[in-house]
Amino acid sequence: MKNDFVLTLIHRPEMAPEYAQKLTQAGKVDSLGEESLLDESLSIFLFQQGCAHENGLKTTIEMTYASLFNDAIVELAKRHHEEYGDEIALTLLGLPCPQFEEKYKTKDFCIWMFSDEDKKAIVDDCFGLFYEKFGFYPASTGSYYLDAFTINYIKEKYPSVVCAVATCFEEGVKAYHTTNNSWYTFMDGGPWAPWIPSKINSAMPAENKEEDSGIVAIPHLSRDVMACFDGNGSNFGTHPQNVLRGMIYDGQEIPYFYNLVDMFRHQAKYNDGHAYNMMFVGPGWLNKLGRWECPYPFLKKSYEDALGYYGKLKKEGKLIDMTMEEYAHYYRKEHPDYKTPEVALWKDILYGSDKQYFWYYDPYMRACLDFNQGGAIIDLRNYAAKLDIPVGIGTGNAYNASYPYLIQANYRAGYFTHYAGQGTLKSCLVKYKEEVVDLALERTMAKYSKEGEDIVLTTKPFEVVFSDGALKMQSRFIFEKGTGRIRFEREILENPKGLEVTIEDYIVACYGKEEYSLDMTGISLGIQGEDPIEIPYLYKYRHIEKDSGVAYAKVPQIDSLVEVGGEGTKARIEEGIAFSPMFRLSAKKSMKEGRMASWLKLRRGN
Fold first, then answer.
1. How far apart are CA 380 and CA 511, in angstroms?
2. What digits encode the pLDDT tens for the residues 463-482?
């Protein structure tokens, strides 16, 4: 079996590094164009490039707008392209500089937040200046986030572009709070690994050739997909200075960084022999003033150690370094099927616990299962809804590029709620007489396998204890390829007391992008079947159960239809209240032995 681990190493020569804005405001330098800043930034960029080349690694040099005005950087990029095979690309980060601020009369710097007309003007300006300096248009570009409008415009106007940095996994509310509510980059709900963005919404993978935007997208950083979901993702990535910011080091060693790289290598086992890692560090992170309470020598050593590890893996034949353009062609060749999912079976490498997440995305959904909670779904996004979410000045949505959730256990609680409410979760209840056990309380671990083209996660057996006896059970989660459907199998392995139990697979969901509840008016709940019924959501805590059928919820606010059904199961819908603004759908069945099968399916609402 193939076992490729690909690294894309990106450097950007920032002539106005991100920390420089504060230096000018504090009066330590007069302007972003001051010679001392340019000299320091250039020397750090040269150090980064030298460190890569010493370790036998090629880079992608993402030229910023500001750097295109510096002839020394332009000539350096040309030389490194010829000597080392480095790619010369263009990033839409690094816009702030005297020339940009004078031309556009703004302090804004995030390309997706500009108006559509300004986006086009800035793209044309950057690409035109790049062509003027190099005599060709770039094959790669990027930003913290690139919205579909910008990607579509770039691909139409500059078809040479085949790759882009297009999102930063799990930024948003957590990062916002960590920065004292001052970092307005909201982009939850996108992929953590490479994907082909849809023309409709860049956060979701294209379903077919018609939706294909024409580029391969990569994340801004390779994140720890457990730690950054639970906490601030800016501390947990294959960016050694991020690791220092999170204070995850021992003396001046960074073992966590190596473990994180190795965890990404391990993902090839679950993705047909493909694993990917990217590292993207601008000079500002290595400035001579120090950063994150770390002096410059430690910043420098952490960078040397990180690239030294990548270089060691390459020498051992365990890593392939590719430029962004090279990786785009590789990805297209190795992923000819749009519907092949990307998955990550992730262990806790930060604290060393037995906690385990399983992440999944395809053109129909993104989901995260937590096996510390029995395999409960703690994050769910409906890509099948194909939501077109314009972002930028003039759209009515100036900055929030997040893809809405149906379940987000950190923003809208999960199993553990403070009072008489319910949190968003997809889990299962086992009931015996008046006793109820939620499998979200059953800690277990899962094993990955495939059945045909479907991906299967099978838990270790676990015990469900009642006062009159105990059951030994096991869960299986089957992701049915190309359907937007997950099948859940709950099997009773042992029942020595012959207890008759009711198994109820349920989902509690709502919709949103942040923590605060939104108006549920307009949602409708129903049961399909011989005697169908549908009710509007009125916050009246109504419950309806039928002996058969499929429970569903229509959520027009995010154009979503959520369905829960099963084999020989009863169907149940529950309406929430204002204090607990959720809806609940479930399939249930009474049994003493055997297996209960149910499913969850996501569709477009219309």
1. 10
2. 999 999 999 999 999 999 99
